[in-house]
Write a structure and sequence with these properties.
Strand content: under 5%
Oligomer: single chain
Distance between the termini: 76 Å
Helix content: over 70%
Order of helices and strands: HHHHHHHHHHH
Structural class: mainly alpha
Length: about 400
């Protein structure tokens, strides 16, 4: 019987944004064509944003404050570009892991204890995804609202856009200003969607995979349960061995799934780990600089808070994957294997449990392109590096002003 897919709010929201970016599964030829068109538009949007910010940095190079501001924007767009190019290269693999999760994770045929595990997972996903999405959307909203508030009461020649264009056109004059403002808002919002949807997807996939390992722990621990204590027979051993064989196959499938997650997301994780320290350093500097306008401070307050939430979200989900995949060994050992008779199937169960325990001692994890495994320890290291960068940048700017 086909299992019914569970409606989860975090999955629904993430799927909606992934469809806007053009990297979600399609059910027919029409949806496939639409997805390819949206994907092309997404790539055009990101390359346009990169070109705009690079040109802005060229013309702002003499001004220290503006250069820091534009550099922060460039790093943000560079992170989005890394995610998009990686997803474009591993597009089929990305869609495959989504389909596998939809078929094997997001369904309703669990028992009572397993439903509790899945409900806890869904609750955690909802908290993390919605908090991160709120600050990401708040950042782009502040980018849009700041020029609207600044332009109140100004002449046409003094109006500003959300982002500098440096074109030989009268962009502050109607109708050029209104047209360019709308274009920038549409493109900037698309960049924002691409910025947070891939991290939300990674968090959901990691936490649901970790929950599957917790469900597997529960199943291993109940392989030889208390109800069968007095039923010491060869028939019981064969029944328990059949269950154990199914659980081992599930364990092997989860391990292979983690390898696919590593293949798809390791480049994204590497780019984020590499650039997050610098990004948060620049955010903090722009917030604390005395000559930073109030609107920019609000924008980058949202941005740095979103970065902290984003960093916590994917490092915590990766850490859950490590811990829960390792704990399978303890669950396999704690099952009541000692109550089984020493017949053919009883010996086979003991032998297979030894293999499960040995394999589980090597945790499933996601790495930054194979350099190191990502965990909560990565979170503290990135924050520490960001503070070091901030202190260095602050000292250098003070020395420059004194000179």
């Amino acid at each position: 019987m086909k299992s019914k897919e569970v409606r989860d709010l975090s999955i629904t929201v993430t799927a909606f944004y992934m469809k806007i970016a053009g990297f979600w599964t399609s059910n027919n030829y029409v949806e496939e064509r639409r997805r390819n068109a949206i994907m092309s538009y997404t790539l055009f949007t990101i390359f346009f944003a990169v070109a705009t910010e690079a040109r802005d940095l060229y013309f702002s190079w003499g001004n220290f404050s503006d250069s820091i501001y534009v550099t922060c924007n460039i790093i943000t767009v560079a992170l989005v570009l890394i995610k998009l190019l990686t997803s474009f290269v591993y597009n089929e693999e990305l869609l495959a892991v989504i389909r596998y999760a939809r078929t094997n994770f997001w369904h309703s045929n669990y028992d009572a204890r397993e439903k509790v595990i899945m409900n806890n997972c869904q609750r955690t996903c909802n908290y993390l995804v919605f908090v991160f999405t709120f600050f990401a959307q708040g950042t782009i909203l502040s980018f849009i609202l700041r020029p609207i508030l600044v332009n109140r009461g100004k002449n046409e020649s003094d109006r500003i856009l959300p982002f500098n264009m440096w074109l030989e056109l009268p962009l502050s004059v109607t109708p050029y200003f209104e047209l360019m403002f709308i274009v920038q808002v549409v493109l900037a919002y698309h960049v924002c969607v691409c910025y947070h949807c891939f991290d939300s997807l990674l968090c959901i996939l990691n936490l649901h995979t970790a929950s599957q390992f917790r469900i597997l722990q529960y199943r291993f621990a109940n392989t030889c349960n208390e109800k069968c204590k007095d039923e010491v027979s060869s028939l019981r051993s064969s029944h328990e061995y059949a269950k154990l064989k199914t659980y081992i196959q599930q364990h092997q499938a989860l391990i292979e799934y983690c390898k696919k997650l590593e293949e798809v997301f390791n480049s994204m994780i590497f780019g984020q780990v590499l650039l997050f320290s610098l990004l948060m350093c620049l955010d903090g500097y722009l917030i604390l600089m005395e000559d930073t306008p109030f609107g920019r401070r609000v924008t980058f307050a949202f941005h740095i808070t979103g970065c902290i939430c984003q960093l916590l979200m994917f490092t915590y989900s990766c850490d859950c994957l490590i811990r829960d995949s390792t704990n399978v060994a303890d669950a396999a050992y704690n099952c009541l294997w000692s109550l089984l008779p020493m017949d053919k199937y009883g010996k086979m169960i003991r032998k297979d449990l030894m293999f499960v325990i040995a394999r589980s001692r090597t945790p499933c994890c996601l790495t930054a392109c194979g350099f190191f495994a990502v965990s909560l320890e990565t979170y503290t290291r990135i924050l520490s590096t960001a503070i070091s960068y901030f202190t260095l940048l602050r000292n250098q700017s003070e020395n420059a002003f004194e000179a």
